[in-house]
């Protein structure tokens, strides 16, 4: 059903929550109005808030569906379907699966990167969320550069992030617990893993040139580029000079402020807001929001987090809900070049969620419309046939 009228509740239209009806036709928003109208299907939204669907530009919770325990694998198609259901049920209508391609074998190795990209491309039509490929390239993974350049040229990568976890890896080598976890994830013996780390570190001088080459290819083909865990304003400025204008999880306020002043997008984790701080002990996302240094909130490792975080920011009077919601919808849509979504407005893609926010700190998704289709609904009594007589429609 693609001819739908949402009526009776409030909607986020522009920067305000207003009483409005929303008419959806052929996958897009036909119009918003202050009066009712006719449609093949009506959704009673009384007591609910209609919001633009969440655009999640960085989420890797799908890895838990692929490997729920170390060494326990499940087929990628099963993992993607399960992740899709979780994302949709939490109001995420656009998903960028953040796929790490590392020099390590195993879950984040070469074979899995290829399998994930192929699976996402094959399964896109049957997934409820608009599902896209966010490649997180470990910068020391130099052997992957030619393939990534090919994928960028062919338009197979939707976002490209540059990660460097090598310092963390070498530091963890002296921690028996962390080292054992890395070895187990790789599927190698301890001796083999140690040798691999040594070989990778020996090529460190080649990393900067590789980043420059891949950034050039990505920029030439219009792929949004991100840096990860920026440590200093100088590092951020270096990435910006390469056209990498999205800073993911800058680790301190100084770097976040430099990114903001340079006109870059800054991404923080929504779980950080929900939990009241970073699980790594780094920057507080809520504090960054309050200081105007956070542009975007992403699910990171927990799909319920963006919905919860936006409402918590409003409940704690850090931001009004319309501005808080922009962090999880309008701003990530802009940063990723998806200008057809992130707003409830005529001619935009019909990605809309209906939320019961009677408990402000525990909002509940009642219905999700993705690309004009109802893909999730928990209260079927709200679905009505189109029996309302036609009325004059006025702009909201």
UniProtKB/TrEMBL annotation:
Q: Which GO terms describe its molecular function?
A: hydrolase activity, acting on carbon-nitrogen (but not peptide) bonds
Which PANTHER family does this chain map to?
Answer: ALPHA-D-RIBOSE 1-METHYLPHOSPHONATE 5-TRIPHOSPHATE DIPHOSPHATASE
**Gene3D superfamilies per the record?**
Metal-dependent hydrolases, Urease, subunit C, domain 1
Is the Cell membrane keyword given for this protein?
no
The record, for InterPro entries, names:
Amidohydro_3, Metal-dep_hydrolase_composite, Metal_Hydrolase, Metallo-dep_Hydrolase, PhnM
Broad EC category = hydrolase
Q: Which organism is it from?
A: Afipia massiliensis
Q: What is this protein called?
A: Alpha-D-ribose 1-methylphosphonate 5-triphosphate diphosphatase
Documented EC number(s): 3.6.1.63
Could you tell me the Gene Ontology terms of the biological process aspect for this record?
A: organic phosphonate catabolic process
Q: Which UniProt keywords apply?
A: Hydrolase
Q: Boundaries of each Amidohydrolase domain copy?
A: 89-376
State whether keyword Cell inner membrane applies: no
Which Pfam families does the UniProt entry name for this protein?
Amidohydro_3 (PF07969)
